[in-house]
Amino acid sequence: MSSSNMKIITVVGSGLIGRSWSMVFISGGYSVKIYDNQPGQSANAIKEIRKQLEELEGAHMLRGELTATQQLALLSSYDDMAQALEGAFFVQECVFEQLEVKQSVFQDLERLVGTDVILSSSTSCLVPSDVFSKVQNRSRCLVSHPVNPPYYVKLVELVPHPETAASIMDITHALMTKVGQAPVRLRKEIDGFALNRVQAAIIAESWRLVQDGIISVKDIDLVMSEGLGMRYAFIGPMETIHLNAPEGIEDYMKRYGVGITRVLNSFGPVPDFCGEGSKSIVNEMCELIPNDRQNLSARTERRDQLLMALAKLKKDH
Hints:
Layout: E1 8-12, H1 16-27, E2 31-35, H2 41-58, H3 68-72, E3 75-78, H4 81-85, E4 90-93, H5 99-112, E5 118-121, H6 128-131, E6 141-146, E7 155-160, H7 166-178, E8 182-185, H8 195-211, H9 217-232, H10 237-243, H11 249-265, H12 279-288, H13 293-316
InterPro entries: 3-OHacyl-CoA_DH_CS (IPR006180), 3-OHacyl-CoA_DH_NAD-bd (IPR006176), 3HC_DH_C (IPR006108), 6-PGluconate_DH-like_C_sf (IPR008927), 6PGD_dom2 (IPR013328), NAD(P)-bd_dom_sf (IPR036291)
Domain 3-hydroxyacyl-CoA dehydrogenase C-terminal: 192-257
Family: Belongs to the 3-hydroxyacyl-CoA dehydrogenase family.
């Protein structure tokens, strides 16, 4: 696949993730064709993207080298899938998280594109072997799992189907790097991928500690936001332990490995997140942040503003 042909990306689905992916790709100078099977939705998505880009430009937080106007000129909307796919070298699927729907979408995509077009799914919890099970040529298929919201959180997990060609992983990794994301490669598929497995472990132990009366909802969040998260915003768990002993990671495990094993063996079973025992946690959380749309939207906006500021800080350092 020559670089001269790698200019157009089609985004299938114009919801939150589809809009975010579109913004990421145009920030890197790619032409993006947004398709949605609901008439008018892709056009509405561009209106929303315009508003966001203008706000970002006003706050000096716009990604890429192009102005908001220049980036918007790279966007187009389609209600017809075949037209949206013309000329694309890469397709990013962003429909809702239902296996049968995604399988159907990829059957349609395979029917309409050439054999060298890369087919990528934004799924967060479905493994590639299931998502692409009805595709005939699976060597050009992979999952590119973003973190919500992708425009502000740069990580992308690249997860191969067992038949995915190495060259497809390489091209996608290069694409994600070019548009300013931080791609990581999984060497094989696994339920939950890497990010959600680590996140699930944190959620489970945090839930247990609150449920067992050890700590409050507010304070367990502070353990992460004012403790572990301060380091993890810049270095991961492996580098953290490597730096936390005079002679590095091997020294760390000699000093603390027995204690870590003891603590891990004390963990209880997976909590019942929806049972009677969960009600007190839900109530405590909703006292801190009421679960009505207005309060949740305000906190989400605060989160995104802080993520933007953190992204800028990391870029400048």
